[in-house]
Amino acid sequence: MSGSRPVTLPQLTPSFSVTCTNRNLTVSEVVTRGLAAHMVPRLSHTAEQELMEVQSIVDTIELHVGDDVRNSPFIDHSGKLRSASIYKAMVHDEEHSCPFYMFAWKTPAPPKARFFAWLLIQERIQCRSNLYRKNIVESATCELCHNGEETADHLILRCPHSASSWSATGVQIPATATVTEIWKLPKPDHIPALHFDCYILLCCWQIWKHRNDVVFNDLQPFLSRLQMQCKEGAALWRCRLPSSGQSVVESWCLSFSPM
Q: Reverse transcriptase zinc-binding domain: from which residue to which, for each copy (predicted)?
């Protein structure tokens, strides 16, 4: 352990860890045959030292006959993995080094939108460029503008339909802006600073849903419909904000109203 954070074996012994020839070893196999039997033939001096350190730990392990006893905060009494426990651990309040943790998981947005934010910032949403790389679609071309590859950046920030939506709300998109740092978009004067990150996520979420309406429901891209969906979404999200901050939604809704 280092402070309050657990440290993994590869972090403690990086040279040793990369020399293992079998990534699926059981504890029993390691205890029975020793670690050296599962290493590459020639180890560096550093890897040999780390091997001796890990082997000294393995030597303290005693095997017992019977079923394994598994201890994890993510399994129930029957040994089944519970995704709810994993989700709660992901959004707990300890300090995180992840730069987008607060934006993805701590905004008062609905869980689906927060999960979308987590995927978006890592450019892992199911846009056509990602689907094309997986051989799921035959073309990566954007289905809204039919002009350019539908990457996460294009879909959310650069597509003419998305750009028009941002412009209508008064949010200026810098030429260097990227979804990997979407929370850093400059705030316009007419939008309150309080919960501005949630406002940004609301816009991204509705752009994504608008895109899906075009792709899956055969609707045409339409700025007025997108702005109305943003306004309706803002009204629905109001109750998720702390009561002291719900007044910002009025400014949000005004930004989505046609001029």
A: 83-166
